[in-house]
Amino acid sequence: FGAAAGVRTIGAYPNAPMALVSRAPVQGVADLNGKKLRVAGPAMLQSRPFQMFGAAPVSMALGETLPGLQTGAIDGMLASIPVFTTFKYYDIAKNMTILPETFLVVAIVANEDFLTRIGPELEAVVLQSAQDAIVAANEWTNAELAAQMAEWTAQGGVVHDLSEAERATWRETIAAVLPEAVAAAPELDAELAAFRAVAERHAQ
Question: pTM for this one?
Fold first, then answer.
């Protein structure tokens, strides 16, 4: 995905689950209907599922979301969980709904020209360092996530988990969007094939 921009992905790791923070509780997908929600960007997988639930996704910079919630310009916003405690969203909106199986994934990238210039030996060192960093990042993230959730509830925030039936509806909606998303970005097809292969291995 980064090749056209001259960068290579040399690592990736899940930063945290994605959640929706809103002024009114969202305890099921029906509660999304009519809501104006901030999403991180215009990508179809970011916005289309919410449209299918009757919400209006709005692409908005992170720095604009807190005043947006204060003024009612948006009803809720999506981000990874640490964002909400770091910026004290609990002062404005108390409701956090964990989105099923939806994670913010951080990509580690390196400039392709740089990797070429340093030669194969140093390139191998850089690539291994990235893999080592992922292990450390995952250990830090797991501990930090527990602390962030404790902070949210300590400040009066409420956490909503969808029921299994609601989670199934969420997964089915994402799956329904995938063909449309692949048609718009054919390079996703190979990525999905890789994920399905991993899922099949673990299922066995």
Answer: 0.84
